[in-house]
Amino acid sequence: MLSIHFPHLPADRVARSRWGASWLSRGRPDHPPVVFAAKIDNAMRLVALDTLAERIGLKRGQGAAEARAMCPALDVIAADPAADQAFLEGLADWCDRYTPLVALDGKDGLFLDITGCAHLHGGEKALISDLLSRLFSLGVEARATVSSAAGLSWAAARYGNVAVIEPEAAGRVLAPMPVAALRLPEETAAALERVGLKQIGDLLEAPRAPLARRFGSLLLLRLDQARGEADEPLSPRLPVPSFSAERRLAEPLMDEEYILELTRHLAKDVRASLERHGEGGRLFELLLFRVDGRVFRVRAHAAMPLNDADRIAALFRERLQAVHDDLDAGYGFEILRLAVLRSERLDPAQQDFSGVPEESQPLAAFIDKVSARFGPDCLMQASLAESHLPERAGGFAAVRDVAAVIGAPSEDKLFEGRVFPENRPLRLFTHPELVEATAEVPDGAPRSFNWRRTQYRVARAEGPERIAAEWWIDGEDHPTRDYFRIEDQEGRRFWLFREGLYGREVAAARWFMHGVFA
Which residues have a Cβ under 8 Å from the Cβ of 441 and sit 6 or more positions away? Predict the structure, then answer.
């Protein structure tokens, strides 16, 4: 388990924007110390500092006014947690080059599960050396440690100076570290220090039962996790692909045609893996690692299970043309990876002697091409829903599966046993519109109503058709509806409903226009 700590993440983010990504290798320009302040308890306090600010004695939590008194030339910047989080997520994307199992660790760190990946980079020490040197060239200060336990790696990355820790050395490395290295709450760490338990070594030999009674079970859990005696599963921030293929390039690649050609070769490698498992891809993702650390993710969806390399490459040809303006190659891409995020069973099939493809193939190719170019919501189809409220019983859904388009409605099991009400309007409003209606009796049909600044006099009315609310969605207090089919004196027909039952649910009911028949 590899833990990466970014001790000056906000300062590195601002320094990269001011002085360029290579500011660390060129040396820090002659600039006053940089600190970040935020309002805490009605006072501006320091929440992050750069290296120079730490050297002159400034501390986190210190008042901004006091810090300015200590250093009048201090550069105070308003803290931006959203920008820091986006920067950390960008670094997590960049770390995907080492392993797909990357998890965020608070606001200033990452966890990487490099099980089975270290040998691809020459071993654990070589991997850490490559990671830290690349981050340094990108203008990001970092510390990293790898061990068999996430808690031990976390502690050593922040309080130790060992890059690789062997399992048998866990206790020896942990012993001199402060109790804060166990990821305990501040009040627990302070309570331990007050009774003289300042180092982890003081806890390793202490009886466990008294520690649990006085400081809680979390202390023992964190201690066991740091020693590797308790499991601590990693939760990746992104789904792990089922199949993937990757190319690391000796020279950065910028031309779109070369990218597509290389994507086709990657698709051939992915096809071999899919065929061995008898599956076809439904959701593909192309990862483009730019030399400056930025990562582009381009996804393409297939309407049916797919393993043909040319078809996969055609999907990304359309997608790259659609996102052309947003895909900035910069100085080029150094790594390309094609991943299959979702796959399904693909039964082998053979065409007949006529050479005419099945009906689903050209339709699937059309859906894939149009969706890749204009987005997944460009093709819509009518769909049913399990609801008795008119506005929820049907709608439109994006076409994502060719089987849903080819299948006849009469063959769809969703329609079996369904009773469809008659006399529904040709046009149903998405949101019912409020009207002013006048009725002779409280529970009767309206005699006249005003809708869209026009008065209508009712000649005929049919109803009511009572529809209860869906209490599991809208709540038990949601009113009942009484629907009426209304025809005015000019022959126009409307579909109105009264919301609420007089005397039982509401004192004064409201009327709504929900649709028109013609």
Answer: none
